[in-house]
């Protein structure tokens, strides 16, 4: 039960039945949105109809489109954010609903803010980062990259992205290289500025590219004047992306793993908020190092870290069976910090990304 007027819930929450009293009010200017901006969106925006085969929707906060076109009803506009935060994409209507079984993927550069009288989610609203892509409205920070020792085959893993906490360090190579630092914690628990998680640090190899860090999770805000209802089948996901695995380069060389991205930001506000589903903002797992030397075990690239898009912690990538390569660190959750990439003889693992932030604000 949410009882405080303002309550910050960091990272992942799964509330079986969170209900608050219902009072019909006119929503004041939504938090984070410049109050001078026009707010005249009307009509019902219905996202997804599984029976008609439209269960996959793309919301683009750069182009301000839904499935490639501006919405037929309501408003979808770019507006300034209060407090000098990054620009926002605001979708306003009388009612916004996401159908059961539908998946609305949010892409673009701006955080998504939905403003309506009622907002009902029975499907998945996904603004997560990916292994090589950032979520919409993700933070601009970037964890430290791993390094390569010239004239050797030593590669340290990239650091994990930071948000609610610091990201975890990448794995080191004790005889050659220190670890790469995880990204610093950013913002505050109240999400005074609506912004998502930081990206994981990249990794290196001597001759075949630089594995990319996982992208930071994006930012989503729902502001309702009457009701926000997230059904048992519904969820909002802003997980950090998994770090890339170290490649196998040939000629006895391989690379280290990259860091996972940090979880993003979810902000809910309204007089009545019912959460029967899930809010997920976990950090991504770090990528594993690869192995290029037969005398050290199986040759092959390291596995990609899992993205932080489930309630379970995102696991790090798995290296080939070898004494030469380290596994990736685990992404952070509400109850556990991210873990560092594994130390290795030559190609270390990337660090796990930090937890994101979730705020549920009940208007009295």
Written account of the structure:
The protein is mainly beta and 364 residues long. The chain is built from no helices and 19 strands. The strands form three sheets. Strands 1, 3, 6, 7, 8, 10, 12, 16, 17 and 19 form a ten-stranded mixed β-sheet that branches. The chain has a seven-stranded mixed β-sheet with strand order 2-18-13-11-9-4-5, with no helix packed on it. The protein has a two-stranded antiparallel ribbon with strand order 14-15. A hairpin with a 2-residue loop joins β14 (248-250) and β15. It is elongated and about 65 Å long.
SSE inventory with pairings:
Elements: E1 6-9, E2 13-14, E3 44-47, E4 56-60, E5 65-66, E6 75-79, E7 88-92, E8 95-98, E9 103-107, E10 111-121, E11 124-126, E12 219-230, E13 235-237, E14 248-250, E15 253-254, E16 265-270, E17 273-275, E18 278-280, E19 357-362
In short:
This protein has 364 residues and is mainly beta. The chain has strands at residues 6-9, 13-14, 44-47, 56-60, 65-66, 75-79, 88-92, 95-98, 103-107, 111-121, 124-126, 219-230, 235-237, 248-250, 253-254, 265-270, 273-275, 278-280, 357-362. The strands form three sheets. Strands 1, 3, 6, 7, 8, 10, 12, 16, 17 and 19 form a ten-stranded mixed beta sheet that branches. The chain has a seven-stranded mixed beta sheet with strand order 2-18-13-11-9-4-5, with no helix packed on it.
């Amino acid at each position: 039960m949410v009882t405080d007027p303002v309550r910050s819930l960091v990272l992942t929450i799964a509330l079986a039945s969170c209900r608050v009293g219902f009072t019909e009010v006119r929503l004041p200017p939504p938090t984070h949105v410049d109050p001078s901006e026009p707010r005249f969106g009307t009509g019902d925006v219905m996202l997804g109809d599984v029976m008609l085969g439209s269960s996959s929707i793309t919301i683009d906060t750069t182009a301000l489109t839904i499935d490639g076109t501006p919405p037929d009803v309501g408003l979808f506009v770019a507006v300034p954010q209060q407090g000098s935060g990054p620009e926002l994409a605001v979708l306003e209507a009388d009612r916004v609903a996401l159908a059961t079984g539908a998946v609305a993927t949010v892409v673009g550069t701006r955080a998504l803010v939905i403003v309506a009288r009622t907002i009902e989610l029975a499907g998945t609203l996904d603004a997560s980062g990916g292994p090589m892509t950032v979520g919409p409205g993700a933070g601009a920070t970037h964890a430290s990259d791993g390094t390569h020792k010239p004239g050797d085959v030593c590669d340290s893993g990239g650091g994990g992205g930071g948000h609610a906490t610091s990201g975890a360090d990448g794995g080191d190579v004790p005889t050659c290289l220190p670890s790469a630092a995880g990204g610093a914690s950013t913002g505050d628990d109240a999400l005074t500025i609506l912004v998502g998680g930081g990206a994981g640090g990249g990794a290196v190899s001597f001759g075949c590219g630089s594995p990319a860090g996982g992208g930071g999770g994006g930012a989503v805000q729902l502001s309702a004047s009457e009701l926000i209802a997230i059904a048992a089948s519904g969820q909002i996901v802003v997980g950090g992306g998994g770090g890339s695995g170290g490649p196998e380069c040939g000629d006895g060389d391989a690379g280290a793993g990259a860091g996972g991205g940090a979880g993003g930001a979810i902000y809910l506000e309204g007089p009545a908020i019912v959460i029967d589903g899930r809010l997920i903002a976990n950090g991504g797992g770090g990528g594993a190092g690869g192995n290029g030397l037969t005398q050290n075990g199986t040759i092959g690239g390291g596995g990609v870290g899992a993205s932080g898009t489930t309630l379970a912690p995102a696991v790090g990538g798995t290296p080939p069976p070898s004494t030469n390569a380290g596994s990736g660190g685990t992404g952070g959750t509400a109850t556990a910090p991210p873990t560092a990439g594994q130390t290795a003889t030559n190609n270390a693992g990337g660090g796990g990304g930090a937890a994101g932030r979730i705020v549920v604000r009940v208007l009295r």
